[in-house]
Write a structure and sequence with these properties.
With about 300 residues, the protein is an alpha+beta fold. The chain is built from eleven helices and seven strands. Strands 1, 2, 3, 4, 5, 6 and 7 form a seven-stranded antiparallel sheet that branches. The two termini are about 15 Å apart.
């Protein structure tokens, strides 16, 4: 079964940062090892489908009939293996990333209610049997699920925002090809310390703003830096291709140098090397353009 074509930017916080003290159910879930990384996309998809198949339809996934969060609010958590900690990371673990599906869905719904065309908004609310006021009340209630001021996970479909690569060291990549694209163990990810991610985000953001002004990449970096600042300074940041690894042949995934090229672009901006910039952007367009074509055909 194919995993959803979703990539992730995650923050794993020390367990001590997830409550004072952390909930006993959370402690037990972390001790048990948490959720399987490769099953995250499938679990989120299944929980959403379950909410839509319920009678009556539930506005948000991971939510009980009366609107309260399901028990999975506490127990759905990813746990970072000590072997995957960035080199030299000295903070004590364990490190955990709550799934927070109800709150993340609420944030997306809140954005939809604010930005969608009136006819589309009305159709969605009518299909769920709720009024706009009730939907807003439920989304506001769901946001209180969060242990920080922001959710621990950002997601994108079919691609990875290039500014995200500026947060990591290209040499920090973990690549597991497995037996091919369908292998559940297949993985491409990077992990770095929060302090390093924030430093890189700040340096890259200042450089891009100086060069291009308030551009799209500059805004992405600014928003991402503000998001990272919501979490414990001893946290670990992870960039994970997630289900996108299914879309690349072994040779392409092994040869993927996007992280290196993004850092080379930043170096070329510092030195004003226009020719190198053009070549690097061309390489990135060629690599990620293939995924864009697949998205378009789907």
């Amino acid at each position: 079964m194919l995993r959803p074509f979703v990539a992730y930017l995650r923050v794993y916080e020390p367990l001590r940062a997830l409550g004072d003290p952390p909930a006993q159910q959370l402690v037990e879930a972390v001790s048990a090892g948490g959720l399987s990384r490769v099953a995250i996309g499938e679990r989120e998809q299944r929980m959403w489908l379950k909410s839509q198949a319920a009678a009556p339809v539930r506005l948000l996934p991971a939510q009980l009939r009366d609107g309260r969060p399901a028990p999975s609010l506490v127990t759905d958590v990813l746990v970072l293996d000590p072997a995957d900690l960035p080199a030299g990371h000295s903070a004590e673990g364990p490190f955990a990333c709550p799934l927070e599906l109800r709150a993340r869905s609420a944030a997306a719904l809140s954005t939809f209610l604010a930005d969608a065309e009136p006819a589309l908004r009305t159709a969605v609310l009518d299909s769920g049997g709720v009024t706009a006021d009730r939907a807003r009340a439920q989304t506001k209630a769901a946001m209180t699920d969060l242990t920080a001021t922001a959710a621990h996970t950002l997601t994108t479909t079919w691609t990875v925002p290039l500014p995200w690569f500026s947060l990591v060291d290209p040499d920090e990549r973990k690549l597991v090809l497995g037996s091919g694209p369908a292998d559940p163990a297949r993985e491409a990810s990077w992990r770095t310390s929060m302090s390093a991610a924030l430093r890189r985000a700040s340096d890259a953001g200042e450089l891009i703003e100086t060069t291009f002004g308030d551009s799209g990449p500059g805004r992405v970096l600014s928003q991402t830096r503000q998001w990272l600042e919501s979490f414990d300074p001893d946290s670990v940041v992870e960039l994970d291709y997630g289900g996108l690894v299914q879309l690349f042949a072994d040779s392409l995934l092994d040869a993927d140098s996007t992280a290196e090229e993004v850092h080379d672009i930043l170096d070329a901006l510092r030195t004003g090397n226009v020719e190198e910039l053009a070549e690097l952007f061309s390489q990135l367009r060629e690599f990620w353009g293939d995924l864009a074509a697949k998205e378009h055909s789907n």
